[in-house]
Amino acid sequence: MTKREMTQERKILLGKIHIAKKALGLDEDTYRSIIFAAVGKNSGKDCTDRQLLKIVKAFEAKGWKHRKNPNQYRKVPTGRADLEKIYALWGRLQDMGVVKSTNLVDLDKWVSRMTGGKRSSAQFLEESWAQKIIECLKQWIAREERRGHNE
Question: N or C: which end of the chain has fewer CB within 10 A?
Fold first, then answer.
């Protein structure tokens, strides 16, 4: 077999496979048997990109869920406790699966809508507006928990 070029997509797929192995708590034999069942090979490094994708799908079938950049909303340093709380509550909605996007632009759009267009972003909220937004987010979370969207 010729040496395979390590493309960005290939690196991502191999990374997902190793993350899934760790997240599912698999020992080496179980890990290899899942790979073999999915593509008929013992190692991901011998697989094509398409086969790597099949392996990822096999891990998803075993219960692994890939989260795109799950901590993105936690990486915003603000220095303001009220904004940190807003980001944390928004993150809770993401964790519950209510908010699908990890992009903070969606939070800013929601803030703009909730303020009637008076503020375009959470970072521009005065303390009084921030408290109103926090209460709205808490109420939203409570509604979703009553509907059964708990983690």
Answer: N
